[in-house]
Amino acid sequence: MQPVNFRSFRSKLAHHRKSFRQFLNKTEKNTPKGIDQLTPVLAKEVWAEVDCLSCANCCKKMTPTFTEKDLKRISAHFKQTPEEFKKQWLKKDSNKDLVNKTQPCQFLNLEDNKCSIYAIRPEDCSGFPHLTKRKWEEYAYIHKQNIDYCPATFRLVEKMMEKVSV
Ligand code: SF4
Ligand code: SF4
Q1: Predicted model pTM
Q2: Which sequence spans correspond to the domains of the chain?
């Protein structure tokens, strides 16, 4: 597993973002056969390469969505009511989803990139970046957003482009 090299990530993103987005647009509209079988295989390769603890870019630059269940669990941990927790840390975004008010996330330890509420973190965090969550055609629009921040998503799309021609 390699530490994430942000200089290389940013440079590759600057050069390839457009072609990656075109690939995602094309595969979203006209999904190549076999792509859903290939995704978990490539995702496994990605996780053998990418060390999230050297990155934490999702915790620094993005926000999870908090479900009501997350809210109850995490607020109870801090001996707060869900309302108190919400008032202190969260806001509603344009989709009316509950998200962090600020970035980096208040629960990120910036010294070691570890989550201070790891065991009870939001479900969205535990599955992020959801490489195999849904069928490719249903999730390509999220990959399109996440390639800008997440080296693991970027690598998945890069690997898929090497395997699948559109
Ligand atoms: S709750 Fe933890 S895993 Fe989720 S964004 Fe915050 S620091 Fe990262
Ligand atoms: S999920 Fe993506 S953005 Fe988050 S730490 Fe891992 S590689 Fe970085």
Answers
A1: 0.94
A2: 2-58+129-163, 63-127
